Amino acid sequence: MKEIIKVSSLSKEFGTLKAVNGISFSVSEGEIFGLLGPNGAGKTTTIKMLTTLLKPTSGSAIVAGHDIKSDPNDVRKRIGIVFQDPSLDDDLTGFENLQFHAILYNIPKNRREKRISEMLRLVELEDKASVLVRNYSGGMKRRLEIGRGLVHEPKILFLDEPTIGLDPQTRRHIWDYISKLNKSTKTTIILTTHYIEEADYLCARVAFVDHGRIVALDTPKNLKDMLGGDIVSVNIEEGMERLEKVLRTVKWISSISRRGNLLELNVKEGEKRIPEIVKLADARGVNIGSINLHKPSLEDVFIHYTGKGIREEEGNWKDVMRMHRAARNR
Length: 330
Ligand SMILES: Nc1ncnc2c1ncn2[C@@H]1O[C@H](COP(=O)(O)OP(=O)(O)OP(=O)(O)O)[C@@H](O)[C@H]1O
Ligand SMILES: [Mg+2]
Fold this sequence. Notes:
Alpha-Beta Plaits; Rossmann fold; binds adenosine-5'-triphosphate; alpha/beta; 2 domains
């Protein structure tokens, strides 16, 4: 498939902080590609460089056939952006917000209205076209922003945390729009998220980002298959070292990681192995509190690569603050 984005060793430093630390990847035309990682991983900084809003410290990228450093204007004409923080004008109607954008992008007057109507239809906001955006719900605003990002028919749409702060139901709704517009307009989509299910549901391929680096990149299925079986989490009250030591010699366990009182094992047909694990623990006098088995999710793969969950570091505190701000500005 044709490559529409090629990123080579891209880095961004803020003082001594390496916010983005030498990342490389390619995106195919028509693909939905995801950058998944915790708060502060460097997702927005990456998007800002690819959309020419921020100059890289080093490295390069070709976006829609143009170099982000030497050709930023040509890049900008061919991309649409939906920012992480809301950026609509609350005092304008939905239609006016899109109109403002269309003028900014020099869409000729005779085509403007038709294009705006098409986009409002795509995100199902035709009946709200003349309502002030301050009276839109959070989900409606997000849909309008997505529609706005598409007004000038970009080849690539960048979505930075498209569903942040939305309730689960609205989130699913937005997923359907994103997937629908990708299919109907063939627009390439690159999105960032720290919602595991979002990346899993929407993305053809996902890059895990942590501390400014890509630690894994593949289709969600391959990433999950890579773990080599089910996750068996053993909660140990006493004797963690003893059990870990013996389990490390067991050949049907493909990997072991430790998190607090938990030993997490990757095991094929995990349910059949639980009795054996219990036996091994008993034989060494280890006290097991509980055992839990589940099929791997992208979260498990992320833990496998980084030793931590996606939401562990700052929890969702930043999201709460954002929603708070958004509500206050409404
Ligand atoms: N303009 C800036 N000046 C200094 N540091 C910055 C700046 N922008 C981002 N950073 C830092 O760079 C790191 C990466 O930030 P970035 O916003 O790219 O993360 P993110 O993955 O988008 O996180 P989130 O999930 O919270 O949106 C963070 O440590 C952040 O504090
Ligand atoms: Mg961000």
